[in-house]
Amino acid sequence: MTGISPQQLAAAIRGAAVEAGQTAPVVRGADWRLATVTTVNSDGTVDCDEIRARRLPSYPAPQTGDVIVVTRSSSGNWAALGRLESSGAGWTSLTLASGYVWPGHGYSPAYLVQGRQVTFRGRVGPSSGTIANGSTIATIPTAIRPPAGVEAGFGVARDSTINPAVVRAEITDSGILRIYETTSQPSWIALDGITYWTI
Q1: Does residue 124 or residue 153 have the better pLDDT?
Q2: Whole-number pLDDT of residue 57
Q3: Which of 79-83, 86-90, 112-116, 145-149 is modeled with the greatest confidence?
Q4: Which among 187, 194, 183, 180 has a CA at the least distance from the CA of 158?
Q5: 170 — alpha (psi -120 to 50), left (phi > 0) or beta?
């Protein structure tokens, strides 16, 4: 290269090295950034393009497309801290078992994950008739099920002219959401207020 002295070339190389180091975690040490989840793995990790990060308990229900905060240690290990709050309320629609629907009043069935706390809301009813005793109305996603070995029972509102009118809802450790009522079967039940903590 003509017109450039060895000193100028050395200075340019040093400047480029400093600029590269300012953006490289291996040079800077610990670092964090935003990333978009491209793959959810069964081993507790998520992929964000070239990054594979282990999820923290604060990120229990990952989904492809989540915009999350990931952090990297100076040794090169990545951790997924959790998703950023979207413009919505953060409620995720609950997939119902075959034959069950939102009856068209109250909230539609959904759940909200806040750290280790899981909260449900919404109403569920059969496509026709009433909810039979012991019916499975939904299966809760694996990542937000109650702790192993625990079956959580709740009193939930139902249709009735008698007040207060409740039935028993149960979520098993395998994620089965069932309704129990031995007499006067309900035509809908409300999940509002069901709350528990994951491990």
Answers
A1: 124
A2: 82
A3: 79-83
A4: 187
A5: beta
C-alpha radius of gyration, the chain, whole number: 25
How many other CB atoms are found less than 10 A from the CB of residue 123?
22
pLDDT per residue over 97-128, tens digit each?
999 999 999 999 999 887 778 899 999 999 99
Report whether 116 contacts 138 (CB < 8 A): no
126: left (phi over 0), alpha (psi -120 to 50) or beta: beta
In angstroms, rounded to a whole number, what is the distance separating the alpha carbons of residues 52 and 185? 49
Dist. CA 141–CA 92, nearest whole Å:
11
- Total H helices, total E strands in the chain: 2, 17
H or E element, residue 16: helix 6-23
Burial class (CB within 10 angstroms; exposed 0-12, middle 13-18, buried 19+) of 162: exposed
- Phi then psi for residue 175, to 5 deg, are 85, 10
